[in-house]
Amino acid sequence: MTEKTKLHYEVIVVGAGVAGIYQIKRLVDLGIEATVLDSANGLGGTWYWNRYPGCRFDSESYTYGYSFSRELLEEWHWKERFSSQPENLRYLNFVADKFDLRRHMQFNCKVDAARFDETRNLWCVSVSGGRELTCRFLVLAIGLLSAPTMPRIEGIDSFKGLSFHTYYWPHEPVDIAGKKVAVIGTGATAIQLIAEIADKVAELTVFQRRPNWSAPLNNSPISEEEMADIRARYDEIFEACTHTPGAFLHGPDHRGFYEVTREERLELWDKLYDEPGFGIWLANFREIFMDEAANSELSKYIADRIRQRVSDPKVAEKLIPRDHGFGVQRLPLETNYYEAYNRDNVHLVNLQETPIERITEKGLKTTEREYDCDIIVYATGFDAITGAYDRIDIRGIGGERLFEKWKDGPKTFLGMLVRGFPNLLMPTGPQSASASTNFPRGIENGVNWCMGVMQYMWDRGYTRAEAMHEAEERWTAHVVKMYEIMLMRKAKSWFTGYNSNVPGHEEGKIRYFVYNGGTPKFVAIINDIAAKGYEGIAFSSNAPPEQGAMSLRTRNCVES
Ligand code: NA7
Q1: In this structure, which of 1, 441, 509, 535 has its CB flanked by the most CB atoms within 10 Å?
Q2: pLDDT digit string (tens) for 136-178?
């Protein structure tokens, strides 16, 4: 029987990205009948889709790769400290081929709906094209930033040139040389893109509604010798990531902000600004995330750095955020972003002064004038964290829709289970620590924990696991509480569920999307719960006791 004709699996994993690949590896290792479904024509998730120029990690590459296989760590050579999209996609394909995982994946299979069958304790999964599958466990590995959003601007379809969201940057080469390009948005994506294409296009006009803080990536190649050294230190590197809140190599400076002199603070910031990666954000004083005055002092320091890098003082002022402090939104890292605005062919339009009125056949029209262009790039972000879930019609007990349950924001148990939706597992779900941390480190923790739940059930013959009401309430309240101390709660950012292009997600209502307690605390909590027999989850079985514990062999043969 081929994958495409099978009707039942013990586990269906949705999403063949970084999480889905590791999830299927763990399942295949145990001999579980499982498959991965993905709407794309290939694996890689984020790294399959986002092919815009300049797309790369902000995580040190060697902390981003999987840690589960020593052999893999020995074989792969990261070429750059912060690796680019084509290389990342090659890496994920290499992993899939090395462990022969591709045969457990089905592409061009978009999951439209999933319904829990309460009598059989199975999920019924509807796949595009009319295929209906069933599974005991539905594992959603559908990403945090995988539901791109277009702006709500009139006339988008009337443009006669080339236009696309950055997520859908064409797979075939786009000839940008000599072209007039418009970029809408100045988030992390646009910041990478603008810096990369500024010197390759004829004219680049950036339409900025709100500037973002940004700091240098300070990328560099990794030589054979450096890679050999990294390989020798992998245990140490991954161990270090388990001790920092963000699961990066950058941990906070433990001196108190007010315990040191201003000169000492400046000394630290001068050093961090010129160092690679997130140091200026995550190796800073902890107070910058919680204390307005501390944050303001750092923001002023970064603003001066921007002024030093942008030749035209008027442009520099436009690039300095006024509505939020440094690091309270997700910090984009850049390479020559600010210098791009020193070029004669790069123009910055402040949409707060002159908003876009409409897209026209030839380009854009603001309240001030028309801009003709050949290409419009929408770098307008994502319906983050819950968007990908909302785009699948997921129905649990009594036909309850997950979309409805989460309409004012997600409610989960540990970010991995949802009450009313038994046997639905989310290794990197909303309110887990993955979104707020170095993603693959969070993925490995989440997948391992979800595997633990399934193993616990297989060993005992349970066929149904559901988060308890009280456990879900307690976790969600804890997640909310962790926001209270953070300046980030005030930010109009995808960490708080803000997106001007999604109905209901406009400014004003916080959605408690991520766990802000940091990796060490999150891992301690989930491990403790596992050690207590998954306290907070109600397990049951619909099989008579004598048929209780199914053997692996039987499990593999179940057909609906
Ligand atoms: P972001 O960070 O959400 O940025 C989206 C940008 O698009 C942001 O500057 C928005 O301005 C702008 N935007 C959105 N809608 C509009 C309209 N209608 N008009 C003008 N400008 C608009 O998404 P990214 O893709 O850059 O980054 C997402 C994450 O991917 C990033 O944090 C990394 O983790 C990887 P606004 O701020 O709303 O005024």
Answers
A1: 441
A2: 999 999 999 999 999 999 999 999 999 999 999 999 999 999 9
